[in-house]
Amino acid sequence: MISLNSSFGIDFPKAIFRSLLQKSVRRGYVELTEKVALALAEHGDSKWLKTRANIILFEECWPLARTTNPGTPTIEVLKEVARHRKNKDASGLGSLAYEYFSGNRRAATDSPDSLAVRVVAAGLERPDAFFNWVESKHLSSEQKAVVVSARLLLKRASWQWDKAFCIAASYLAMSPISKVDSSTSNFNCNFPIWVAIDKHTPQGRAAIQRAGAKLKIPYNQLSWISFYFESAKVNYLVDSPWWNAERKWRFEQLKISESYATGVWQEASIIIEEDLNFQTLKIYDLIKKIG
């Protein structure tokens, strides 16, 4: 594989490629996922990829954790998540629990099941006690597989919200685990690279700020709107009530309605995509050079 540093003319844009990896998995672009992962590995991200691949699994489709194990190759984990329909309940419950853990008690009182939020938040505070409690239950082999994977991953995860996804998945795994099918969607169209240059990258944050200033929309509102309407978009979402609850709760915290956010994004997305055109073309060029 060729080095991408000289192709880009500056240092390899690792932040953008890391963001692109998750966006391509979410939208089901298996071939692009593999290319991006290989590029990141070539540029020293193999250790990060191993941990991130499993975080992505729990965040995007936690039931798949019952079929993977610590020895599953990183690229296979990523491709498996990419090709399947998504179940984002561990992400939704985990995010609400993280907010509760951080001091926002309304994350529990405004949720469909305040006890679940509080239990997962307690797991963030005392993870060993939480996992000992879960493992004391009568679990099937598939349920145990999810819990074992989550407990191992928790030790490697750096961010509290990533840890929250692991704990949330373990809590959800105490109930029967639904099967998740492969996606039947068609992905012959080109991936919209600009969506990967989002709030998780310096260029994306700057573009959101400029669009917000132009439209007189606060950055915090527009960054979350861009996340839910573009960055978090998936190929196919199965019924995920916790994800829906977290999204509803977030908009209520921002004091905006779903319809308002829809209108804002219709206008802002055009501005942001145009703003990022130069960076997008550069990333397209890099991807073409990945062998």
What key attributes describe this structure?
about 290 residues, mainly alpha, 16 helices, about 65% helix, globular
Overview of the molecule:
Mean pLDDT is 93; it is low at 5-9. This protein has 291 residues and is mainly α. It has 16 helices and no strands. It folds into two domains: 11-172, no CATH class; 193-288, no CATH class. Helix 4 (46-61) packs parallel to helix 5 and helix 8 packs across helix 9.
SSE topology:
Blueprint: H1 5-8, H2 14-27, H3 30-42, H4 46-61, H5 74-83, H6 89-101, H7 106-109, H8 114-125, H9 127-135, H10 141-156, H11 160-172, H12 202-215, H13 219-231, H14 241-254, H15 258-275, H16 277-288
Helix pairs in contact: 2-3, 2-5, 3-5, 4-5, 6-8, 6-11, 6-14, 8-9, 8-11, 10-11, 12-13, 12-15, 13-15
Q: Overall mean pLDDT score?
A: 93
Please state the CA-atom Rg, rounded to the nearest Å.
19 Å
What's the number of helices? 16
Query: Oligomeric state of the chains?
Result: single chain
Distance between the termini: 6 Å
- Write down the domain tally: 2
Number of strands: 0
Largest sheet: none
H-E string: HHHHHHHHHHHHHHHH
Strand percentage lies at: under 5%
Identify low-pLDDT runs: 5-9
Helix-strand category:
mainly alpha
Helix content: 55-70%
Shape: globular
